[in-house]
Write a structure and sequence with these properties.
Length: 337
């Protein structure tokens, strides 16, 4: 979604037709050089340590949510079905780029094969796009739970929430197929130095020596469906939710209702806010240096914070963790003397 909003607000600069591919050889690339943090040689080991700890925390927190959601029958509900999918997506798209970033921090050769770059871009766009749609599905779930509690079990049945989750994955897959195909149809004219941490659409479009207008049109068009539409649906859902909560007479009831959706709202603000407040700038001010900073936020920091946010404010998960912990606790052996 970061990519989609970025493209819709700040399109990649157009090249002059007369300069496109002028004097360039159409050399087939075998690899790309990832510049990443190459200008911070003195901080390589520190950055590696930070990324390693963050990545381990991300894996541990999200695996914990998945295990608890699966093992505790009380959490076999639509909300935790979506939460389990969210945790799995966070693991997937973090694993797509963070391990390679750590390898590049400690190695002399900071490269990725052409095929590896294609696979990395495809996977990253697939998982990030799926998460955009999933956050909207989670908002719809909270809307039904808060605004129509008596009909919740009827409306949000297993068929519907399974179909919603599957649709999110399908939408993310189709989105990735289109953008990956359009990106790697472009010529690079032998240019292979990516001024970024991983293979992503904006740096690859800037690196290309061909006409990127079709790519930008696709990003803008599909961005409305994958990026802006889910975000506006989330905003609309929470307007109804807040309106309903304010009409609850009991302060305890208001607090309980708000707590069920506060965690999701925080995650949405982190995920979508990092894009909106970074890319709503004039086209002339767009720079990969600024985009590189925000990429660290949405690809490393946010997936680590999601489990903390959901477990910190969620009594159900805390109780489920205790139940699962007691269930899986090894028996204490006693010896009679």
């Amino acid at each position: 979604m970061i990519i989609l909003i970025c493209a819709s607000l700040c399109p990649i600069h157009q090249r002059e037709p007369g300069k496109v591919m002028e004097g360039k050889n159409q050399t087939a690339l075998s690899e790309f050089i990832i510049l990443g943090f190459s200008n911070l040689n003195e901080l390589q080991y520190l950055l590696f340590t930070i990324f390693f700890l963050t990545y381990v925390s991300t894996l541990g927190g999200n695996v914990f949510i998945i295990l608890v959601s699966v093992l505790d029958p009380h959490l076999h509900t639509p909300m935790y079905h979506f939460l389990g999918n969210l945790a799995f997506l966070d693991i997937c798209y973090t694993t797509t780029n963070v391990p390679q970033m750590m390898v590049h921090l400690l190695s002399e050769k900071k490269s990725i094969s052409y095929g590896g770059c294609v696979a990395q871009l495809f996977a990253f766009i697939f998982f990030v796009g799926s998460e955009c749609l999933l956050l909207a599905a989670m908002a719809y779930d909270r809307y039904i739970a808060i605004c129509k509690p008596l009909r919740y079990s009827v409306i949000m049945n297993k068929v519907l929430y399974s179909w919603l989750a599957a649709s999110c994955w399908t939408g993310g897959f189709l989105n990735s197929v289109v953008h990956t195909g359009l990106t790697f149809r472009l010529p690079f004219c032998g240019h292979n130095e990516i001024n970024y941490f991983f293979c992503d659409i904006p740096p690859l479009l800037i690196l290309s020596c061909g006409d990127t207008s079709v790519n930008e049109l696709a990003l803008l068009s599909i961005g409305v469906l994958i990026g802006w539409t889910p975000f506006l649906c989330i905003v609309l859902s929470y307007l109804y939710i807040i309106s309903t909560i304010l009409r609850i007479h009991s302060s305890e009831g208001r607090q309980k209702a708000f707590s069920t959706c506060a965690s999701h709202l925080i995650v949405v603000l982190l995920y979508y806010g990092s894009a909106i407040f970074t890319y709503v700038w004039p086209i002339s001010t767009y720079s990969l240096e600024k985009d590189r900073l925000i990429s660290v936020l949405y690809s490393i920091v946010t997936p680590m914070l999601n489990p903390v946010i959901y477990t910190l404010r969620n009594k159900d998960i805390k109780e489920a963790a205790k139940v699962v912990g007691r269930k899986w606790q090894p028996p204490i052996l006693s010896f009679d003397i």
